[in-house]
Amino acid sequence: MAAMTAIRRAAVACRVSRRLLSHSRASPTLLGHFYHPMCPQDPQAFQLPPAAAPAFQPLTASSPRLSLDFLPDIFDYTLYDSHRGLLLLRRKPQFDTRGFLVCDPVSRRHAPLPPPPISFRNGGEVVGAALLSRAAPADPEGGLRFELLCVALDVDRPRAWVASFRDGWCRWTALPRSRGVTVDFDAMRFERMSVHAAGGMYWHILNSPAVLALDAATMEFSFLWAPEFMWGGLDGPHKYRIGEMPEDGRLCVASLEEHGLQLCVRGHGDNGWVLERRIAMEEVLDSVPYLPKNPVVRHFRLWLGDVDRGRTGRVFINTIGFGNFSYDMNTKKLEYLAAEEDGMTFGHPVFAYFSTPDDGIGMGSA
């Protein structure tokens, strides 16, 4: 049994490695960011999938203007992931299925996928999903080829389900249950959307000092613990975020607290982390006239949403009822994240979108 488990994991990891190598010959170009528009004054907007269709914000004036208007029933879906030039969307829970939709906004190719063949009745519950890898089409007119990952809870152990999609044909494969990770808390605490960082995938857990991690090379689960100083204390739990350092792609964990924006990298220190950077934020946040000035109220109403996956040097700051912001760690500039056309703010998360080496798009494309 142990030998068969190792073989199945190795087979999936080998396929993923081949996909990664097939796209490693050229560096992708950041084209912009996809997000769900939301009403800046809606306190529930950061928790519920909004009614608006996903929108795209180009990085520069010369970046292509992408849209998802070619997708059928786009209002029925919510964004779940952006990886290797693909977007993953999942059907909203109020509809009769939780199936997936994967698309390439540049080529406008798209593919609907059924959910993995599990249910509460046979011991499974999907708690997260992510794009795993992508391969180039067999010919210029060929369809999409990719792997999609679902994380399910089989009783109290995570199990990875991998969908291999080739030119209209989909096959789900179940990997063995994790032997080293036990989930002893309510599955509703998982953030269903993953973070791709430094060769791994991570799922944040509400009010937890650890995140669920999956190594894409070995397909093994583990818990990654945040630094103790970023967790707990007299003012309650903090909301830290996993990401990559913008300069070199090292794995990092960041948080925004009363004493500033903090970024830690792996090292011999607090739960395996060392403080890399601390930026005072009080004066910057005080410059926004309508944000709370009281530190206790601010801690409750404002937090770090994400480290920009586009590695632009920005972090995204979320609030309850005041809209969302980006902060550039290099220029020290705080910007309100809102679309010029309708004034709707960027929802959480904000997905960086890159070109792929075979799509022929660069920063000068229109």
Please name the defining characteristics of this protein.
366 residues, mainly beta, 2 domains, 4-stranded antiparallel beta sheet, 3 helices, 25 strands, 9% helix, globular, disordered N terminus
Query: Could you tell me the mean pLDDT?
Result: 85
Strand order of the largest sheet: 4-5-6-7
Distance between the termini: 54 Å
- Strand share of the residues? 35-45%
Q: Major beta sheet, specifics?
A: 4 strands, antiparallel
Helix content: under 10%
Unreliably modeled segments: 1-7, 17-25, 362-366
The total number of structural domains is 2
Number of strands: 25
**Helix-strand string:** HEEEEEEEEEEEEEEEEEEEHHEEEEEE
Shape by Cα distribution = globular
Annotation field: number of helices: 3
Subunit arrangement of the protein: single chain
Structural notes for this entry:
This protein is mostly beta strands and 366 residues long. It has 2 domains: 1-16 and 67-225; 226-335, no CATH class. Helix content is 9%, strand content 40%. The chain contains 3 helices and 25 strands. The protein has helices at residues 2-22, 282-286, 295-301; strands spanning 30-35, 37-38, 55-58, 77-83, 86-91, 100-104, 109-113, 125-135, 145-154, 157-166, 169-174, 195-197, 200-203, 210-215, 220-225, 241-244, 251-257, 260-270, 273-279, 302-307, 314-319, 325-328, 333-336, 345-346, 351-354. It has a 4-stranded antiparallel β-sheet with strand order 4-5-6-7, with no helix packed on it. The N and C termini lie far apart (54 Å). This is DUF1618 domain-containing protein. It comes from Triticum aestivum (Wheat).
